[in-house]
Records
---
Amino acid sequence: MNRSLKVGVVGLGLMGRNHLRVYSEMADVQVAAIADVDAGALRRAAEAYSVATYQDYRRMLERERLDAVSIVVPTGLHREVALAAAQAGVHILVEKPIAPSVEEGLAILEAAGEAGVKVMVGHIERFNPAVTALGQRLDEGALGRVYQVQARRIGPFAQRVRDVGVVHDLATHDIDVMRFLLRLQVRSVYAQVQAGIKTDREDALLGLMRFEDDVVGFLDVNWLSPQKVRELLVLGERGLFRVDYIRQELAFYQSCPRAKRRVGRPPALPPDPTASGAAPQSIPIEKKEPLRAELEAFLAAVRADAETPVSGADAIVALHIAERLVESARQGVALDVLSPLASAPQEGRA
Ligand SMILES: NC(=O)c1ccc[n+]([C@@H]2O[C@H](COP(=O)([O-])OP(=O)(O)OC[C@H]3O[C@@H](n4cnc5c(N)ncnc54)[C@H](O)[C@@H]3O)[C@@H](O)[C@H]2O)c1
């Protein structure tokens, strides 16, 4: 039996309510307290769960002696709340993106380091079982050489607090997943964005990333599309993997075998893949709520006093790449990406 941990949640909007529900479903976790400036949000949550409620998260941190806290307030407030949690000696799960800027994100890591508390960032797609299964296959070399990775994350705009643009808010998911799966660093980026349509910031991104080992990444991300798509493609020598994040599905399309080359003749044209009609192989996935897997991994790291599976450094690098994409679009040129950390650690998989 695991030691019971006392946790709190700050921010009870769309995502914070999910954190509260998932923690409440865990046998060895006591959700002791929740905080939100919105009295109505607090009251509604308290009707469903028996927890102490606070409109001031600072009071909650002072009084409750929590082991861990989920910080699920708008991104612009992550630093403020995380610094208070670090000062109170509470381990931190902060939602993605870690902060609106690398500078603010680094301030969180510094405060946590000084206080000796753990920081994990809610890059939830790493915990999507289809992504985990794809990671295992890539590690086993199922694709041979990897050529390209592409993500499409498009859908309708939903009214919530939008204190960062779509590159920071949504593209950071895919930037992180790509780095996580490929275990490669991004060397340069080029992007075009469209802004000022639904928000004052970026509403759409078409971005290119050049990874180490000659791998190219493509990001098609917006909150303008009537159709919701969450898709990841990884193309390599032996075929193509396709992840449907929403359905938690993974499919593999095998490349046609290479045509034999006759000595003294020019290479035969490759067979037309569109004509091959090869059926995709659907890979069985054991479905699981990604947030549940993420929060379990966070609390396991707290219990074991181990590294969190998504480190603050990972989140800073994803955020830095997002910033470079936005800057590339502003300048209209490709930009190099240098690590914002003295030594960006390469992290292992969860
Ligand atoms: N991992 C994911 O897939 C995912 C999905 C959605 C949102 N998020 C992230 O979660 C965070 C919150 O997003 P959301 O969609 O839930 O936002 P939201 O606007 O729905 O909710 C934010 C909540 O924070 C509360 N709040 C604001 N200021 C506060 C303060 N000073 N103290 C306490 N509470 C305060 C608001 O009253 C509101 O209830 C963002 O960082 C966002 O990027 C992550």
Note: The chain has two domains: 5-125+291-311, 126-289+318-336.
---
Amino acid sequence: MSAVEISGLTKRFGDAVVLHPTDLHIEDGEFLVLVGPSGCGKSTLLRMIAGLEEPSAGSISIAGRDVTDAAPSDRGVAMVFQSYALYPHLSVAQNIAFPLKVAGVPKREIAERVASVAAMLDLDALLDRRPRALSGGQRQRVSIARAVVRNPRVLLLDEPLSNLDTALRARMRHEFARLHQQLGSTMIYVTHDQLEAMTLANRIAVMSEGRIEQVGAPLDVYRRPATLAVATAIGSPGMNFVAVTIDACDDAGTSVRLPDGAVVRTAAAVPRSALGAPATLGVRPEHLFAADDGPFAGTVELFERLGPLSFAHLGAGGAADTLVAQLPGERAVTLGKRLRFAVDPANTHLFAPNGRAYPPNACTP
Ligand SMILES: Nc1ncnc2c1ncn2[C@@H]1O[C@H](COP(=O)(O)OP(=O)(O)OP(=O)(O)O)[C@@H](O)[C@H]1O
Ligand SMILES: [Mg+2]
């Protein structure tokens, strides 16, 4: 059992609260992905779990044991950083063996474990090389090998792939999925990459300004973001946001008014007190569809062809901000053309001024 239990965990640097009191339960063997904008506290949370940063308050337990005051080496955790931090004067084999040597593991066992981890990460042929003679992807594999060689109960990974090119990232992403299956260890993985988050995670935790805003299965978080911050963090290209006024609500949902007066139907439930109040309407690019009488209008300012699909960036039309709409790959669009789009009420998101999403239901009395 190597579940991680975080209760009331808090971090302050002087007056600044970097992590507000946080509770989080990570299941034994779970792959949890932490996402959120730069500076929101992801690394700080990870470093506290690793024991590299002292909490200001709260506790951490791993496998049922309180490790809040335990030394990093006594927690059964290993951490992989964005920069590989390998020892340049040691060979790959010596780099991987290093933590075992420090822990006083017998030589024969070290050799066996290094060989087994090297095989798992496809490093067999590179064991005698020095780090400088390796590619970025190979170096990161060595630092992962060094982290897993001690059979950590919990593996912490802080943007481990962000220094690699796209092709290597894709390959390493598959390797992480495989590694997780093979090791069965609990993994907490920080990334800015949407694909990594959506494909690797059992659950995603979205952070914003020192708080965990939402934790859930990747698709649930994608389909039903609980706050504006979560809606902003998940999805690429990101969700479109339009400042609206709440116009009317009935059993079927809520109507909102765009800045130019056009009305959009949503499936949100708002309290009657919200009538006439401002709100933020959110629509993902793939949910805007071309419609001659659609409420969203704009002039095509940028057209991106990705092959199987395209993105049209529309300048100030019905909305004050630019809108991005996803189009089928075969559709050609000329710059400067004025287009109209509509959205199915079920595919809209409506956020209150405090950033909370209104529930997708009928109007509440
Ligand atoms: N030692 C420190 N002293 C003071 N402030 C710190 C310290 N370490 C981190 N911070 C601040 O804490 C906040 C959270 O930092 P953290 O490194 O956890 O962010 P992050 O979510 O990992 O960001 P990124 O995605 O850029 O890596 C930032 O505002 C940072 O400036
Ligand atoms: Mg960080």
Note: The chain has a mean pLDDT of 92.
